[in-house]
Amino acid sequence: MRTAIFLLLFSSFFIGIKEQKGDFTVHLENGQSIEVFAIKDKDGLLEKYRADITAPVCEDRVCYDVHIAFNWNLLGEFKDFEIRKNDPLTKLDHQPFLPEDYQKLQSILVSRDLNFVKVPASELVEKSDKSKVDGYSGATKLTIKKEVIEGALFTCYTLWHIANGAVVDSIKNHTSAALNKSLVSKIIGLKSQTGNYYLINSLSKEGFSENIDALLSVIVESEGYFAKNAFEKIPEDIFVTSSIQKFIIENFLKQDYFTQKAILQKLEKVNLLPELKNYLIEQIEAHNSLKNQQLIALVLKDSDEENFQKLVVKLEKFKIPVSESNFPKLERLAKEYNQDISSIKKL
Amino acid sequence: MKKIVIILLFSQLCTFAQKHTTLFIEAESFKNKGGWVTDQQFMDVMGSTFLMAHGMGIPVEDANTMVNFPKTGNYKIYVRTRNWSSQWSKKEAAGQFQILIDEKPVDKIFGKDQANWAWTDGGSVKITKKETKVSLKDLTGFNGRCDAIIFTNDPDFKPIEDVNALTEFRRNYFGFDKNPTDAGEFDFVVVGGGMAGTCAAISAARNGVKVALVQNRPVLGGNNSSEVRVHLGGRINLEPYPALGNLVNEIGPEEGGNAQPYSYYEDDKKLSAVLNEPNISLFLNHHANSVKTNNGIIESIYATNIETGEKVLFKAPLFADCTGDGTIGFLAGAEFMTGRESKSIYNEPTAPEVGDNLTMGASVQWFSEKKEEPVSFPDIKWGMEWDEAKSEEITKGDWEWETGMGLDMTMDFEQIRDYGMLAVYSNWTYLKNYSVNKAKFANESLTWVAYIAGKRESRRLKGDYVLIEQDLTERRVYPDGTAPTSWTIDLHYPDPENSKLFPGAAFKSIAVHTKIYPYPIPFRCLYSKNISNLMMAGRDISVSHVALGTVRLMRTGGMMGEVLGMAASVCKKENTNPRGLYERHFDQLESLMIKGVGNAGLPFVQDYNQGGTLMEVKK
Lengths: 347, 619
Ligand SMILES: Cc1cc2nc3c(=O)[nH]c(=O)nc-3n(C[C@H](O)[C@H](O)[C@H](O)COP(=O)(O)OP(=O)(O)OC[C@H]3O[C@@H](n4cnc5c(N)ncnc54)[C@H](O)[C@@H]3O)c2cc1C
Known about the structure:
The complex is a heterodimer. By secondary structure, chain A is α+β, with helices and mostly antiparallel strands. Chain A has a domain at about 1-170. Helix content of chain A is about 50%, strand content about 10%. In chain A, strands 1-2-3-4-5 form a five-stranded antiparallel β-sheet. Chain A starts with a helix and ends in an 11-residue tail after the last helix. The model of chain A is unreliable at about 1-20 and about 130-140 (pLDDT under 50). In chain B, strands 1, 2, 3, 5, 8 and 10 form a six-stranded antiparallel β-sheet that branches. In chain B, strands 14-13-12-18-30 form a five-stranded parallel β-sheet. In chain B, strands 4-9-6-7 form a four-stranded antiparallel β-sheet, with no helix packed on it. Classes of the chains: A alpha+beta, B alpha+beta. Flavin-adenine dinucleotide binds near residues 217 and 454 of chain B.
């Protein structure tokens, strides 16, 4: 890690494109704006974003312009920075940054768990006339101190807000506009939770259709609530396809309870393959839960006689009660197929 | 005939005996408490609430009350007190006080004799008026304590030392136990008004359940109250039940920070939320201390008013133990766990090979304020030996001022709290009087030291399931998942540096964190395995020591409370107990959890102290 930062630090490569117009412009809170360049890989696919930044910073009434270049990935996550060879960042009293200061800056710019960035700039430094509450705000300052580079509080603060501010959404939008199958694969290839969430939040209906197989394989390997959230986002139409219904049969039991419920919810409005219907009957459990009622509702939805009989057998065998909302449908079908359901209880 | 004579004779004897007067005066019942505080934290151990002079170095204002003597004359006086600092120092006692009779001091200084709670003989006093003012006069400002005072003119009277016998004596003397006040019939009694209990009560009330909320302090909030000053932590509004936490958001403080000024903890917000619920009867200042069970079912509980000693009876078909200590479960005979489980029990990677009694500790937090002028602090002699290496040059003691790991968080708690205070005072007297940097602290004034110590862990009641480390790290999600826990598995250990300086008696801790995905706590961890109508929320639920590392956070506990309230409404509707709910009616609880119970329209203010997570978070 240390060497990586070193290399960046002393890289003489610093594109002098300040005057050029970037792929898009981002307006900062302080009224300034930055030009962001989209950089492509050798195949012409988006690779990352980059901007040269000149930001005025004052540390205790000593002001200077910070020159720095920032790089972000496709998803707007800050990656790293570069500085000009003879133009180091400085701290209070124009002391140049030390290698460890650059390292700390890097860790600050990528972090999301910092408290000081949430404090309004005007409250970062304590006013001396507030002596009465010194005990506590002094303590707050102490926590800030731990988070920042000593003597470069406002440099850290200003740069963090540029790196993690409005530019993030602009980058996401720019990437979204360029999303095609190859770019989707590239993002999936990042194997990052942010990337995966980015996709389910940005893909269009067509985008989902086009990439559904790739997305399903991401889901199978995913952690946390991604599978649940992904199923919630996948457009209903896609659940009509037999490929996804077969996927469900194969993978339903590998999903956690809450993902299973999300899947079942998506099936409410689509026609189900007979084999999926049979599969769903098998999933009904003795232990009562909302999932059970969801399963019963799905089976009752345009059920044929064979499905219905199977359902009734299952309900009777496990003594499963049927919810108030499912019960009328059960009764209707019982009448239609002339089945005795007197032993099934209503919840 | 003979019989009657004997009876008459006997009764004459009694009247004769009654010529002697013995008056028992509870300090906590003093009309005017002056600057003395009411401390009930150890009453299950030493027998009573007491008054304490918590002046942080400045003697507090006198407490006083009027005492009616049936007859004037000479009385012997006994005072139940202790010398709390003597277990660490043989030098002069920290907490000394006098008793004033109509403003004249009794010829004896109290609080400097025996180390344990016992009666100190105060000699003889002459009572000249039937209505006499009795006062407690603090001499030191360092936590002198008085439980009760006895005046007697019976030469044969001996005060009772044995705690149980003394309790019996008090019972007979005041008569409260014979005629407990019946609080009425409830659907659900919640004991403990921390975040967990407060949310449980409100949630139940809003779901149509008639609730009694029993809390042994004058304020709600538990560790999040202005008495302990711990800020809420963890996340709310998470998968798989995003509506859980709306109530926590509604009643939780807007500003974060441990050991901050009083106003940060918004006691009144919690109180008015409870008072706004017509379905809740709130019993502040009531300490639940006995439980009547029948066949593994709690029939009723009793609570003692911590100021008047009055006893109150609560009956209900369903109870919640939100005491943090699992006290209700313990009293009812519920199975419980303490300390650290060995690896062999649940195979947890973080568990030690051999189980032990190490719990996470308790904290006495504190802060100082800068004044315009220099402020002095007594050069105490009874403090711990201190030097530059030990000196902590700070103006605030946060969560890491933590002690008592390895001691019993219920039986040894007075010692734990007192040691926490001793450390604060020892450091402060050094900073103010000896430190090489004492000039830096010249204007600092020690203005807040907690006397209600914050606990993290004591008993965990056993449920139908015990949540363990692997459930959290391997994300073994169960269908009965409820409130999601999101904080890291955050386990505390004695600080190695501090332990070197204070072998076996560290007062500072370190935390070791493991991030997890938000994990829905199974409902089976929220009710007792063997007491069929007892649920629990907060830090006394059914989890291993390691799993407690994440679930103990107060936003999480608050959400468990939300779930308990919902469960209480299902139990009421279906006339079942928590296990019956789990087995047959869980779908109803799921629906209520999806719906939520708090006001969803309020701005989200719980954005401080959310903690690290593996979950994808929005910036
Ligand atoms: C110093 C410190 C720092 C911490 N840091 C954090 C943090 O940053 N964020 C976070 O969320 N958590 C933190 N914790 C942990 C958290 O505060 C506890 O785990 C939490 O208090 C548990 O909440 P609870 O409602 O279960 O218990 P409590 O908050 O202890 O509430 C229980 C209440 O019940 C009352 N009670 C007890 N027994 C009886 C009885 N017999 N009768 C009537 N009433 C009774 C008590 O007086 C108390 O008010 C910290 C803890 C400490 C000590």
